[in-house]
Amino acid sequence: MSETPPHPARCGACREDIELPEFTMAFQPIVDAEKGTIYAHEALVRPPGGGSAADVLGLINSRNMYAFDQSCRVKAIELAAKLGMDTFLSINFMPNAVYSPATCLRKTFEAAAAARFPVHHLMFEVTEAEPSRDPAKLRAIFQEYRRHGMVTAIDDFGAGHSGLNLLAEFQPDVLKIDMALTRNLHSDPVRFAIVKSIAVLSRSLNISVVAEGIETLEEAVMLRHLGIRLFQGFLFARPQIEALPTVSPELLETIRARHEAELLNPADAVHAASSERL
Predict the structure, then answer these.
(1) Beta pairing class for 122-127 and 88-92
(2) By the 8 A CB rule, do 178 and 156 touch?
(3) What single DSSP character describes residue 96?
(4) CA proximity to 142, closest of 87, 88, 105, 89
(5) CB neighbours (10 Å) of residue 152?
(6) pLDDT tens, position by position, 90-146
(7) Is residue 5 domain-resident?
(8) The predicted structure's pLDDT at residue 30
(9) pTM for this one?
(10) Contact (CB, 8 A) for 157 and 175
(11) CA atoms of 244 and 59, how far apart (whole Å)
(12) Is residue 190 situated within a structural domain?
């Protein structure tokens, strides 16, 4: 793949003297309920003294977003290595802050090498709610990441306006279903049907699925019935600043046991999702 020389002005936009807001990273696990292990940790930007991502992101603009995107990658990798993370590290990125995929990865590689963090343990997420203005460019970014053995993901699937059109342009390694669709799907036949369709489609495209925003045992068990095994949400752990949260083995065992027990009578489990609101 030939590398397009970066635009001089945009290279300058990533220089180190650009003023950025102070920030750190919180980490939230993505669990594999089938294996009873942690699949990945997502790095989530936070103010150092506590607060929300919006407190930081509200200070990002067209002048500093290139440098901010690079700094987030470096901070996440450095902290993950410091904390001894041995899972995938999931990092959100701004597609419009990447002017040349190969060029913009250089700092990522430098940070990973300095921290001795494996590049193949990096997963890059782009949110469907804020897609690239240029689908061809986003496809090129994902292709470059894959070329170096990194995992690609679409975050918040179902939250934006592009949906299936975005998926038709490129197929990531991982698809993260937005919490607006997974919330109470065990008692909502419409959400149940939509998530089931996404799960079936993803399997046909060889895409792994993460169900986001899981808060109840009932949601997790119903998602297991749909063949989804990767979960993220407050049921398992809340994000912790500069720390790796623990996940209860007892909780994972409960989900496994409930799933297996209900598989003995799957008609009742599926019927519950369709009839509870009738």
Answers:
(1) parallel
(2) yes
(3) G
(4) 105
(5) 21
(6) 999 877 666 677 777 888 999 999 999 999 999 999 876 555 567 777 888 888 899
(7) no
(8) 98
(9) 0.87
(10) yes
(11) 26
(12) yes
